[in-house]
Amino acid sequence: MRDDAHFVARCARGLEPQLAAEILEGELGSITRAGHRSVHFRAWRPYDTGVTALRTADDVFLLGARGREAGRTRSALRTMAELAAQANPEELLSHRNALAPHPTARPSGVEVSASFLGRRNFNRYDAEDAVGEALAARLGVPYHPRRTEGAPPPDYAAWRLTLDGTEATLMLRITPRPLHRRPYKQSTVPGSLHPPLAAAMTRLAAIGPGHTVLDPCCGAGTLLIEAALAHPEAGRYQGYDIDPTALAAAGTNKRTASLDHIRLHRADAGRLPLPDTTVDRIVCNPPWGTQVPPKARLAKAPTAWWQELRRVLTPTGTAVLLLPTPTPLAPAIQAGLLPTHTQRIHLSGTPTYLTKLEPKTP
Ligand SMILES: C[S@@+](CC[C@H](N)C(=O)[O-])C[C@H]1O[C@@H](n2cnc3c(N)ncnc32)[C@H](O)[C@@H]1O
User: Which residues pair with 13 in a beta bridge?
Assistant: First the structure.
């Protein structure tokens, strides 16, 4: 058994602060660095399975080896193979197996996924091959090159290599599937949220005991499900959507998550069937992006959206929304909602804004 462990959690760009906060609040360890899409931490308890339950992380890894990047030319590939030589793959695999069950304790092969910031005179497949062949030789198992063979077999050990322009980091994935692939998400709709981003939004909403939580355009239900999983103590979860297909998807997902108490109904978010000042928390990514057009009253009278949010929120309520880049907030302020937090997030290269609004006090 090891008495020390270093982990790397990876996330969407911009969510590093929420991921670091989740690690600290879960008392999982001390943060040793936070950089582009990653938070490194030294575990307080090396075998604490809480690391596999991080909700704002895309994935979590055991740190294998870290070293300075040796330039941007192909000669750096040799240094990457040396990085693989510094890691102790047998020890890392037995630690991985103690943290999460796998199809086979002894992997039948090695696969590597590499990514880097900036340009190099080699591509990601060259870097993957350099590291993967070295690791496979040490373990005496085959290497699966992504360059030619697509998705790897499920019982292959998944390694990750990142090059950030200064350092190369080699790590071993702990769980058989990436953490962002939630088992409940059986059904999806266009524009459906990345679950770790939904988890970060619910953290920002600070849901508390007895709260009524609303998603007025719930789509496949990701936000309500992430909120209900993290906050079973809330009083009530309510989702609306104009589209019956979206409601069916949300229904499938909430049943898979065994969250039958989430209530779903068809309604126009521009005319919510709710009394005034009855909602404590709103979480939503409204249909204002390029993928999903607004319908009904949201299309005809967009300002009605802000008026409805303000009308249903309690005076101490909070709305956490994911908004596309050029969203003028003047209509929100005119409706009586003040932006109190904004944070830029990049998903698939597209910037969006995580925005928190609270009712103006008279
Ligand atoms: C970006 S999607 C929400 C995705 C959702 N957060 C998820 O994770 O699946 C926006 C949703 O708004 C819904 N919508 C469009 N116009 C609406 C309206 N007037 N009232 C309620 N829902 C509406 C769409 O049907 C769509 O499901």
Answer: 346
